[in-house]
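Reply to thread "Modeling small-molecule complexes from scratch"

Following up on the discussion above, here's a worked example others can learn from. I took a protein sequence and the SMILES for zinc ion and predicted the complex. Inputs first:
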Amino acid sequence: MNELPQWMKHLGERASAPDFERWRQMVTNVGGCTHPIRLAGESTTVDPATGEVLGTYNTRDEPTGYILTACGNRRASRCEPCSRVYADDIFHLIHSGLVSECPRVFTTFTAPSFGPVHTRVLVGDRVRPCHPRDTGPSCRLRHSSDDPRLGQAIDSDSYDYTGAVLWNHHAGKLWHTFTVYLRRHLAELVGVPRSRLGDVLRVEYAKVAEYQARGLVHFHAVIRLDGPFGVDVLTEAITSATLATRVSLPDRSLRWGAQLDIRPIETGGHWTDQRVARYIAKYATKGAEAAGTVNRPLRNIRHLERIRGLTPHARRMIEHCWQLGLRDWAHMLGYGGHFSTKSRRYSATLGAMRAARARHRLDEARAHEGLPPLPPGPLARVGSWQVIGTGYRTLAEETWAETIRSA
Ligand SMILES: [Zn+2]
Ligand SMILES: [Zn+2]
């Protein structure tokens, strides 16, 4: 008789362990997270109004001795199941801010050029030659859509890598400056002093950052004008504010690229509420690795040698970050800002959405035990927790988690 392969034996052993059923439930609860965090500790839930203890929980009572929590990573390359939850949250966040009778636009802000890069431009269904120039670097190839050269510098010796990584690094500041100018230009357009703008209109936004193939960040933003003005006023103010925006560094001045795209969001139009929210949610889960870089911080520049799949272009950007002292952001090609931000009154916050979901799970768990739902209002949870590890402990657990995920 043939011996069972070792890995199958391990799978069987894991499944017949006494804690397996509870463990399986925990994996389901974290949505199949690929790198869950193992926590040990205890917590007490208290109704802050009455001081009544609603429940206590201690991982000592768990068959596993610990509890799993989801890693919550927004990037699909790090944790696919958690990134899906994140994308869902972003969708609802963007969408809930769109349901409104006010003028709204979907805008893409790009970076300027730091030198020619390989591009693929279609005219009809024909691909145009990449960069046919008389002077300077040129490339006459008609690139295929999966050509790994796309986005890479045509002449890496003349490409302004310093400018590119500095731009990425200050992109968040550029955005902030833009929002200040936007309010200023709106005030001028509608003819009220800046200090009185709040009396006639409000401008709210939500934005996400995305990496282009050339490793530069661009922003997709939903901008909403709450007030008695049309979409033309909003469009004009965005355009002039974008042109006026500058961030001054000691030896250079940063601005937006010339490619500014402003589309009205309207029912029946191309960019409907749903489509914009879906589009933004999709990009919110991509990280810098989409531009051919690495997905975690570098501790040593010599580690670059060992990274597979790193494009020469991304590599040059990382090296320039390192030289400029932007080491913590080198793997992000200089960008250190947030991936999704919104103005305070755009819509619900991610935090509020997560709290609502956590409460819903608590109520579900209580219903399971035959307990009534928690009282409305904030709950106080007092606890002390300790991280005892991350990820699954064995290959057998990983395999089981994969099975549970796809079930
Ligand atoms: Zn996860
Ligand atoms: Zn080319």
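What I'd highlight from this example: The radius of gyration is 26 Å. The mean pLDDT is 88. Questions welcome below.
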